[in-house]
Amino acid sequence: MDTEKTNQDLKKEHQHKIIQVIEEVGKVVVGQKHMVNRLLIGLFTQNHILLEGVPGIAKTLTVNTLARVLQLDFKRIQFTPDLLPADLVGTMIYNQKKAAFEVKKGPIFSNMILADEVNRSPAKVQSALLESMQEKQVTIGEETYSLDRPFLVMATQNPVDQEGTYPLPEAQVDRFMMKVHVKYPSKEEELEVMRRMSNMSFKPELKTILSKQDIFAIQEEINAVSLSESLEKYIVELVLATRDPQTYQLDDMAHYIQFGASPRASINLNLAAKAIAFFDQRDFVLPEDIKEVADDVMNHRILLNYEAEADGITTHDIIKSILSKVQISK
């Protein structure tokens, strides 16, 4: 009984600390709570996040600040057309003093990686990054090295100025748990941003809120959040509706969908909904939790045809329609 109480107290403490993390990040970053929330979901479910938004809306600042608050090793990698896989994962270099080759590890050996403008580099570099994300290990020469834990990749894409870029293939984008569209700040938020950033003496002190051990414990606690069988079936129905829309009375959207979401969508809807429930200090998932993360989890997993583009239909429209039509079965 005492152990049960201790575990419950520890869980409440972790849930309170997550609120503190968001508050600490807010000392530097104005707004962008949605982005911070999604980054934390990725971290606590051992997944990766793709951020898309125009330059100057605090993507890099948010990730860097979050790493400082969590006291995690952070590396920013600027993806450029001349970047090589070895620049990312590392390589063998010759040590003249020792007359032998030795390993020089790349920036991928960190806890939080910001892959900035990932679509600026060719397929070889993108593949090296995505392989590291999937396998959680890197092979240099004949040796295989495990990556540090926790390990979170946040890749950014700039939706403007696409000339000379290498868009991530759909099969590769699917490896990201969520694709988060980062929006402009509101009028009030932009006013606050201007005031803060134009003040050259603005240097807030950040506290470390969570340790690595806390992060690992939270990962286990989120894993223990319960999801009822009816909600498990609801998740599967949502994903199946993207593949077979006619069955779910989505005839008006069916002719726009070329390919539906993969099974990774079901897995990640489950994990993300559990994380949302945990953040809200519950040990069970509600239908609202699934609906809250549905767009971010599925928007990059549905491939639309040219007809959709011509009619101005987006994956967000498809997901909204699916959420309105698919019902939870008893």
In terms of topology, how is this protein built?
Layout: H1 2-26, H2 33-44, E1 49-52, H3 59-69, E2 74-78, H4 85-89, E3 90-95, E4 100-105, E5 112-116, H5 123-135, E6 137-140, E7 143-146, E8 152-157, H6 170-173, E9 178-181, H7 187-197, H8 212-223, H9 229-243, H10 251-254, E10 257-259, H11 263-279, H12 287-298, E11 303-304, H13 306-310, H14 315-325
Parallel strand pairs: 1-8, 1-9, 2-5, 5-8
Antiparallel strand pairs: 3-4, 6-7, 10-11
Secondary-structure element sequence?
HHEHEHEEEHEEEHEHHHHEHHEHH
Low-confidence stretches: none
Widest beta sheet: strand line-up = 2-5-8-1-9
- Mean pLDDT across all residues, rounded? 84
Output the number of helix runs.
Answer: 14
Beta-strand content bin: 5-15%
- What structural category do the secondary elements indicate? alpha/beta
Instruction: Please report the distance between the alpha carbons of the first and last residues.
Output: 34 Å
Please name the CATH topology of the largest domain: Rossmann fold
Number of domains: 2
Highest-level CATH class of the largest domain: Alpha Beta
Describe the structure.
This protein has 330 residues and is of the alpha/beta class. The chain folds into two domains: 2-214, Rossmann fold (3-Layer(aba) Sandwich); 225-325, Orthogonal Bundle (Helicase, Ruva Protein, domain 3), CATH 1.10.8. The protein is 48% helix and 15% strand. It contains 14 helices and eleven strands. It has helices spanning 2-26, 33-44, 59-69, 85-89, 123-135, 170-173, 187-197, 212-223, 229-243, 251-254, 263-279, 287-298, 306-310, 315-325; strands at residues 49-52, 74-78, 90-95, 100-105, 112-116, 137-140, 143-146, 152-157, 178-181, 257-259, 303-304. Strands 2-5-8-1-9 form a five-stranded parallel beta sheet. A two-stranded antiparallel sheet has the order 3-4. A two-stranded antiparallel ribbon has the order 6-7. β6 and β7 form a beta hairpin. α9 crosses α11 (263-279). The longest helix has 25 residues, at 2-26. The chain is globular. The mean pLDDT is 84.
